[in-house]
Amino acid sequence: MIAYPIAQIATERFSRPEVPPTMSSRWADDQLHRKAKKEGYRSRAAYKFHEIQRRYHLVRRDDNVIDLGAAPGSWLQVIRSLTDGMVMGIDLNYIPPLDGVRLLTGDFSSPEITSRVHAEVPVVNVVVCDAAPKLSGNHSYDQARAIAIGEEALRFTHQLLKRGGNFVVKSFQGDMFDQLVGKVREKFLAVHLFRPNSTRKGSSEIYIIAKNYRG
Ligand SMILES: C[S@@+](CC[C@H](N)C(=O)[O-])C[C@H]1O[C@@H](n2cnc3c(N)ncnc32)[C@H](O)[C@@H]1O
Q1: Considering the chain, what is the average pLDDT of its residues?
Q2: 170 classed as catalytic
Q3: Whose CA is nearest to atom 20 of ligand 1?
Q4: What CATH number is given to the structural domain containing 179?
Q5: 67: Cα separation from own chain's centroid
């Protein structure tokens, strides 16, 4: 595996491998959870998207955005506030209704979902994917599933994303991560690795931010 120099990963704190949470990191997590509740977000994940948007300006005012693995819907809440275009969320689990957001229940990698998106959204400007597998506890298996989800999200973008469009996908540092980044680099003009401050301390979670789809 390529060890990315720290400077190449945009972050203020980055550590790996996974380490158990300390009292202070648990306290920080609880704080963020309480903040999300107070501000009306469905989960603390909202702050990760805020950080991504502040830094990379992925979503513009008139963009149509598809969110893969969107439940319970906090990224959708943030995205709805950023664009006047269409916003669609897809998840294996039911997503409670959100004003002005089209919601689909199903596997985003299935042909049925792809055709429904194709039929309903004339132009897709941005695809975001925060999907994660259900953890089995077997680290190698979970890592392989996480990478497979990233590859499925990339396939989805190949089918639907407009040339010039943007993409963000959650991944995890470990086996096959570099290969996934390589595949994204082949198809986008600019690719960055970003670890939001709101990611749990000790997690190997990292976002691949890809701008300007080559088509
Ligand atoms: C961390 S949660 C997403 C949180 C979301 N970004 C938010 O802000 O509320 C990950 C989600 O990915 C979903 N997921 C995983 N694989 C999926 C797939 N193939 N198709 C659709 N959803 C999937 C899971 O059901 C889970 O709800």
Answers
A1: 91
A2: yes
A3: 107
A4: 3.40.50.150
A5: 8
| Prediction pTM value | 0.91
Q: What are phi and psi of 68, to 5 degrees?
A: -95, 130
Cα separation of 153 and 69, whole Å?
A: 10
Ligand 1 site, CB within 6 A: 42-43, 45, 69-75, 90-93, 107-109, 130-132, 149
The burial class, CB within 10 Å (0-12 / 13-18 / 19+), for 48 is buried
Whether 1 is covered by a domain: the verdict is no
**Count of domains forming the chain:** 1
pLDDT digits (tens, 9 = 90+) for 76-85: 999 999 999 9
User: Which residues have a Cβ under 8 Å from the Cβ of 57 and sit 6 or more positions away?
Assistant: none
Long-range Cβ contact pairs of 105-110 (< 8 A, separation 24 or more): 108/68, 108/69, 108/152, 108/153, 108/156, 109/152, 109/155, 109/156
Active-site hit among 170, 183, 187, 211: 170
In a domain, 2, yes or no: no
State mean pLDDT over 136-163: 96
Q: Ligand 1: distance of its center to the CA of 43 in Å? A: 12
18 belongs to a structural domain: yes
- The answer to whether residue 209 sits within a structural domain is yes
Q: Give me the domain span that covers residue 173.
A: 7-213
